[in-house]
Amino acid sequence: MVSPPHEAMHRIFQHDPGLFSRLSGLLGIRLDTPIKAVILPTDLTETTPVERRVDTLLRLDSATKGSLVLAIEAQGRKDPDKPRTWAYYAAYLWNKYRLPTALLVVCQDRATAEWAGQEVAAGPPDMPTLVVRPTVVGPHNMPVITDPVRARGDLALATLSAITHAGDPDIGAILKALSAALRDVPEDVADPIVEFTAQGLGRRPARDIWRNLVASDLSFYKSYLSEELRAEGRAESSAAAILIVLEQRGLEVSDAVRERVTGCDDPEVLRRWLVRAVTVGSAEEIFADE
């Protein structure tokens, strides 16, 4: 099953195909700024019943160096089978488009990034034939963007920074800078950034930080995900309030009651339980007639 972080790590390049050319300088790659970037079909399936699908595929056209095909893969963990898959992608795309073909792998942890960047040869030591050495983006080489002004200057890069540093100690400052950078931009620009960031953080604790920032700093945005994040924050606050009232009144709160309260995301139900919590004789009575 494809996870939200996996999707966000490569789809940010579909959202802003020019991101790679701006990223290349950070990676030490000499690449002209494309005059055009085209999103290509990602289905690499052959006529035989074997499906091959790259995460994101771009053709970058340069005024001076011609065109290249860029395959972008999001990699969440080490996978010994991946180098062979990547070699297939490179050979197939090179043959199909007759253009120089490059592979960019985006990772969220240093160990996976170091593994992905290793050179792997398809042939024996004396005859390497086809060598796979992806260009890797991850927490080891992505900038830590904690300045809102810098984040506002390139929102896609700031988003990728947040996604790749999702597990870093600095993630709070990165997300705060990104939310501050979004305050002055149009809603149609901010919405996809809000969504990519939330998807990229996955189930990590940083998602709670982002949810709270969206609920406060970006309270004027009305996208589906923004509303969902704010609703999650309101539900957690209501659940916490119910438990506090019960405990402050000296009522015993069993694990079953606690789990039922914290597991509820219906604001009307939580409101009803909160009203009851003020007068009930036992914690279980807040669920009366439910």
Overview of this protein structure:
The chain is an alpha/beta fold and 290 residues long. The chain has three domains: 4-137, no CATH class; 148-222, no CATH class; 233-287. It is built from twelve helices and seven strands. It has helices at residues 4-15, 19-24, 82-97, 110-116, 148-153, 155-164, 171-181, 187-201, 206-216, 224-248, 255-262, 267-277, and strands at residues 34-39, 56-62, 66-75, 101-107, 120-121, 131-132, 135-137. The protein has a five-stranded mixed β-sheet with strand order 1-2-3-4-7. Helix 9 (206-216) crosses helix 10 (224-248). The chain is elongated and about 80 Å long. The model has no long low-confidence stretch (mean pLDDT 84).
SSE layout and pairings?
Blueprint lengths: L3 H12 L3 H6 L9 E6 L16 E7 L3 E10 L6 H16 L3 E7 L2 H7 L3 E2 L9 E2 L2 E3 L10 H6 L1 H10 L6 H11 L5 H15 L4 H11 L7 H25 L6 H8 L4 H11 L13
Parallel strand pairs: 3-4, 4-7
Antiparallel strand pairs: 1-2, 2-3, 5-6
Helix pairs in contact: 1-6, 1-8, 6-7, 6-8, 7-9, 8-9, 9-10, 10-12
